[in-house]
Write a structure and sequence with these properties.
By secondary structure, this protein is of the alpha+beta class. It has one domain. It is 58% helix and 16% strand. The chain is built from nine helices and seven strands. Helix 5 runs antiparallel to helix 6 and helix 6 runs antiparallel to helix 8. Keywords: Membrane, Transmembrane, Transmembrane helix.
Length: 226
């Protein structure tokens, strides 16, 4: 095993022994790369200069994995049908739609809430609280789908080329990949933590808006303005 890029990249070489028992030439190899990704793509967490250096060591061409472009990843029609049957992949577009709907609701709720506060409209304030709760619900759907998608990849159900690129004999490099891929770790980044924090903030904001509506209902100032 050879370590490169300050221990972030490893190359595992499989060599055959000569008749004298010495270590011979390499028959298969496997590069294990750090990756970073989101909802749409998964790309190597390496700079262009680092990739250029690794290519001189025998690293094959590295491309970002597009989760939505299944035809480019899976040429075998049987594998493609199996992937389509996987519910995480079938809900990929749904997670993106939920995220967009969440943003639309948040923008609309800001306008409705501003109108309710300025015009002292209790119904508008109450609707704002419900809209924040609805936005949190769609955000929960998005984060849950991402969570189970990453969990399935940790269990080795993802694409075999994700961060593990082999060289040499195809059968041997596939054996190396299947042996080492289960040991990989998937760690959530700051954006995922920010998403969960935003979900908690939406829930808290919903409770505060609903509380504000109840306060405005029994406020003497609201009675005078009415």
């Amino acid at each position: 095993i050879e370590w490169h890029m300050e221990g972030r990249v490893s190359k595992i070489s499989l060599r055959k022994r000569t008749a004298l028992g010495d270590i011979g030439k390499e028959v298969a190899g496997l590069f294990l790369l750090p990756m970073h990704g989101g909802i749409w793509t998964l790309c190597p967490a390496l700079t262009e200069d680092e990739l250029r250096i690794l290519k001189k060591m025998g690293l094959p061409d590295v491309k970002c994995v597009n989760y939505l472009d299944q035809n480019a990843q899976f040429e075998n029609e049987f594998i493609l049908e199996d992937i389509k049957a996987d519910w995480q992949h079938r809900m990929q577009n749904l997670s993106i739609s939920c995220a967009l709907v969440c943003l639309i609701i948040l923008g609309s709720s800001a306008l409705v809430g501003l109108f309710g506060v300025v015009k002292h409209q209790i119904s508008a304030v109450l609707v704002t609280g419900v809209m924040y709760l609805l936005a949190g619900t769609f955000a929960l759907f998005t984060l849950t789908i991402i969570h189970f998608k990453r969990r399935s990849e940790c269990q080795g159900r993802g694409n075999g080329e994700e961060g593990a690129l082999g060289t040499g004999n195809e059968r041997l490099r596939n054996q190396l990949r299947n042996h080492y891929l289960p040991a990989r770790e998937v760690v959530g980044g700051w954006s995922l933590e920010l998403g969960w924090a935003a979900l908690a903030l939406c829930t808290a904001a919903s409770a505060l808006w609903i509380l504000l509506a109840r306060v405005m209902r029994y406020s003497p100032l609201t009675t005078i303005l009415a």
